[in-house]
Structure prediction request, 536 residues.
Amino acid sequence: RPRIIVVGNEKGGSGKSTTSMHLIVSLLREGFTVGTIDLDARQGTLSRYIENRQHFVQTTNAQIAVPEHRRVYRSAVEDSEISKQEDRQNLERAMEELWDRDYLVFDTPGSDNHLSRLGHSYADILITPLNDSFLDMDMLAKIEVVDDDLKLTPSTYSQMVWEQRQQRAIQRKRPIDWVVMRNRLSHIDAKNKRDMGLLLEHLAKRLQFRLAPGFGERVIFRELFPKGLTLLDLDSEDAGISLSMSHVAARQEVRSLLQAIGLSGEMA
Amino acid sequence: RPRIIVVGNEKGGSGKSTTSMHLIVSLLREGFTVGTIDLDARQGTLSRYIENRQHFVQTTNAQIAVPEHRRVYRSAVEDSEISKQEDRQNLERAMEELWDRDYLVFDTPGSDNHLSRLGHSYADILITPLNDSFLDMDMLAKIEVVDDDLKLTPSTYSQMVWEQRQQRAIQRKRPIDWVVMRNRLSHIDAKNKRDMGLLLEHLAKRLQFRLAPGFGERVIFRELFPKGLTLLDLDSEDAGISLSMSHVAARQEVRSLLQAIGLSGEMA
Ligand SMILES: Nc1ncnc2c1ncn2[C@@H]1O[C@H](COP(=O)(O)OP(=O)(O)OP(=O)(O)O)[C@@H](O)[C@H]1O
Ligand SMILES: Nc1ncnc2c1ncn2[C@@H]1O[C@H](COP(=O)(O)OP(=O)(O)OP(=O)(O)O)[C@@H](O)[C@H]1O
Ligand SMILES: [Mg+2]
Ligand SMILES: [Mg+2]
Prediction:
């Protein structure tokens, strides 16, 4: 059965859709088959990214792999019991259609809703990207300095992840491997980066997640969206853009993420 | 009656809460009275920021102005008609309690819901921050290159803003002054910045918004969150952090935003 990777963070703009797309393309280029589900269908960033990729392939005949993609919209039914059932049916139908794939990747919204929580409950691996920022940190844990000591209280999103962990334990499923990944890292700002790094190490123990190497703030992570491409597609001749130091560094960052979540024996 | 500024963008992480806080503190320091409403109460970034500020004032006796703040949670009632009424009652009650203020600032969520749409309908000024990115642009307009020409189709968030504009026209209210502001601008990456700038100029005409000068990507915009402070508080002796080139530039960026939305005669 496919290994399921969920990319989640209730905090908006932490890099879920960006991380999802780069993960998906890496897996495809490793030769795996990949099914993708957009659980943030109304905003649809991942769906648009993949649509753009389809369009690029159709108009250029490029040899570029595209995942098998499904959008799952939130149920619009008013009755909350029925709407939850409908969410479950819609998600499970999409999963069934993609069940022959090696990997499934779910992109989730930057807000809390039943469909997103349901998606999280299926994670073998949960990847949570996060900006190097106290504002983003606040959704993982409230930080207070009490008598010179650091007090960390699990916050909204962490609580939700733990509820899914409990659910899975009750259902005797394998535990979620929770991986947190810093994103949009500044190439300067050493002090803030160090502070965030220390906080995340504390938090990793407290909330039982592990830290993966992150992505720097690099325009190459977003400028290829209109073509549906990523920097990983650029060693193919079809992409038509020249490589640079930043691209090489970005490529290594994506590779390190894959190694950290144990997805690329060959790449290691 | 108070002038109402709504900070909105359905796209997550575009900088709504950051922009809200810097706007609020600027207005307070100009001597205006400010009421603030967090319509993203579950995530509560703005509420937490203001809570931290309260705490800082209480523990240091600093002479630092704090806005009068309200959190408005989404109605949890299942019946959609009653839940919409409850949203309206909750928002209007908060507005009534703050009605003696010079300005009201509403922070809104990075997702679409009835409470957020309702909040948008009260805007005299709507400020939409946006990352310099095709992913963020996609929520304002779908961009397609058709026969060497740029085709711009209003996207989900723009459509919602236009619905609120139509509502206000029907109710004979004054039109919304829609201001879009680029945020987290890179200090390098000239080509992407130029491309985004051109797209936004086209879009401004098409969607009838104006472009305000934006904020650069600067750690000073986020590192003072734990103390509830902003760079604007730093010329006060209580803040305990030394100024730098980036702070001076950031201060000018905030001042330019205020001028652009016509809020600071004295500062101009
Ligand atoms: N490493 C990076 N370097 C440069 N830009 C990035 C990087 N990661 C993300 N971005 C940009 O940051 C913004 C937010 O990223 P993205 O849309 O992937 O986040 P998200 O968590 O999916 O947001 P939402 O909560 O709205 O779903 C986008 O404009 C994206 O292009
Ligand atoms: N100009 C800036 N410079 C540096 N960091 C910034 C800037 N603007 C925003 N940020 C950071 O970017 C992230 C997103 O900003 P913010 O939380 O204000 O966005 P938002 O639109 O309110 O997000 P949400 O959709 O989750 O409500 C935060 O980590 C914030 O600290
Ligand atoms: Mg997304
Ligand atoms: Mg916010």
